[in-house]
Amino acid sequence: MTGATDPDQVRFEDVDWDALDGRRVPVSRRTLAMGAVVLVLAAVFLYDFFLVPTGTPTIPGLGWNVTQLDWLFVLTLLALLFYVVVPLVRNRRLTMHYWRQFRKNKAAVASLAFLAVIFTVGTFGPLVIARPELNVLNAYQPPVWTSVSETVPVECAGPVVDGACHGTWAHPLGTTGQGKDILTLMVFGMRVSMQVGLIATLLIVVIGTAVGTTAAYVGGLVDEALMRYVDIQLTFPTFFLYLLLVYLFGGSLFLLIVIFGLTSWGGIARLVRSEALQRREEEYVDAAVAAGASKTRIITRHIVPNVSNTVITAATLTIPGLILAEAALSFIQLGDPAIPSWGQVIATGRGDLYTAWWISTIPGVFLFLTILAFNFLGEALRDSLDPRVEQ
Q1: Where are the transmembrane segments (predicted)?
Q2: pLDDT confidence of 295, banded at 50, 70, 90?
Q3: What H or E segment, with its residue span, contains residue 76?
Q4: DSSP string covering 278-299, please?
C-alpha cells in the first residue's frame, strides 16, 4: 500500500492546512502561468507606452496601433483562455458530459456556431482589412442581391438596368450615404460588440463573485455591509454617471466599458451570494473547517469553484444586455464617434429607411441575431450545467 507521502494518495485528514495556508504564494500553476503571461503583456504595454512614438503602429507588420482598449481585450482573452478553455480541455470527461446535454438544444448549437464566427471575424478581421473610409462617389450603393430605382446614387458602381442601380460584389452589403462599405462596418462592429460584452462582463463577474462569496461565507457585519452597498449600487443611475462623464471627457468606448463593468455587478453578487449560502452548508466545507483551512482558502478552493456554473450562466445572459446598451448609446450619439459600431451605423441610416433601407436594416439584423444567440446560449448553459434541472 502506498504511504501517505505519495502526493496522489494523501488523505483529506492528513493535509497540513497550516503549511498550505502559510505559503507565500498559495496559488495554482495555472494562476502562476497567467501571472507570468500578464507580466510579459505589461512589459510590452510599457514598451508601447514609453518607447513607441505617438502615431507609430505598435505592430508595424500589421499596421496595428494597439490602444488601451485593445490591451484590455487581450487581457480578457487571456483570462478566458486560462480559466475557461484550459479547464475544459483538462477535464475532458466532464466537458463531454456537458456537451452531450448542451447539444440537445439545436438552437443553442446554432447560436454557438454563429457567435464563434462573430468572435473570430470581429477579433481578427480588423487586423487585416482597412478601416471604412469616406467615399461620396460610392454613396447609397445597394446590396449585391437587390437594386434601387427611387434613389439615384452619385455614381452607380454596379450595372444599371431599366434605370435601376444594381448592387456589385465590390460592396456586397451596399454602402452608406457617406460611401462607407457596410460589410467592413459590420466587421468592425463585431469587434466593438465582443469588446463591450467580454471585457465588461469579466469585470462584472470578477467583482460580483468576490463580493458574493465573501458576503455569504464570512457573514455577519461583512455580509450586511456588502449587501447594503449592493442595494445602493443597484439603485444608482449608471446611465446618468456615464452621461456626466461623456459631458466632461467626451464619448469613449473604453469609458463606457469601465463604467458599466464597475457599476453593474450587483445582480451577479446577489446571485452568487444566494448560491454560496447553500454551498457553505455542504459537508466538504464543514470538513475543511474542521481540518483547519482558512476562510480565504475555503472561499477560493471550495466555494468559488462550486458556484462557477451559476456564474457562467449569469455571465452569458449579461453579455447581450451590455451589447444592446452600447448600441443604444451609439444610436443616440453618446458612444465613441471614432469607432464604428452597429448602433452608430443604424443611426446613420435612420433618415434613409425608405430609399436606402439596407443601411439600418443590415446592422439591425446582426445586432438582433447576436443578442438572440447569446440568450439561447445562456438558457442552454443553464440547463446543461445545473444538475438540479431535469434532463
Answers
A1: 32-51, 71-89, 109-129, 196-218, 239-262, 357-378
A2: confident
A3: helix 68-80
A4: HHTTSHHHHHHHHTT--HHHHI
Lowest mean pLDDT among 126-140, 283-297, 319-333: 283-297
CA distance 186 to 354: 21
For the chain, domain boundaries: 34-66, 74-132+181-273+311-385
Residue 360 has which C-alpha cell? Answer: 439600418
CB 374 within 8 A of CB 189: no
Amino acid, res. 103:
R
CA distances from residue 251 to 233, 237, 241, 246 in whole angstroms, order as listed: 23, 18, 12, 5
Q: Which CATH architecture has domain 74-132+181-273+311-385?
A: Orthogonal Bundle (1.10)
Report the C-alpha dihedral over residues 251, 253, 257, 258, rounded to 10 degrees.
-60
C-alpha span between 357 and 177 (Å, rounded)? 11
Residues near 209 by Cβ (< 8 Å), separated by ≥ 6? 268, 269, 272, 304, 307, 311
Q: Which residue has the cell 431535469?
A: 390
Confidence band of 5 (pLDDT split at 50, 70, 90): very low
By the 8 A CB rule, do 346 and 327 touch? Answer: yes
Task: Measure the CA–CA gap between 197 and 373, rounded to whole angstroms.
Answer: 13
Name which of 360, 352, 363, 348 is nearest 148 in CA terms: 352
Q: In the prediction, which pLDDT does 288 show?
A: 80
Rounded CA gap, 349 and 385, in Å?
A: 42
Spatial distance between the Cα atoms of 78 and 85, rounded to a whole number of angstroms: 10
* Alpha-carbon span 368 to 299, nearest angstrom: 38
User: What's the alpha-carbon Rg for the chain, to the nearest Å?
Assistant: 25
pTM score, two decimals?
A: 0.85
pLDDT of residue 152: 52
SS3 59: strand
Q: Per-residue b/e over 349-365, b at no fewer than 16 CB within 10 Å?
A: beebeeebbbbbebbbe
* CA 365/CA 110 separation, integer angstroms: 16
Do 310 and 272 meet the contact criterion of CB atoms below 8 Å apart? yes
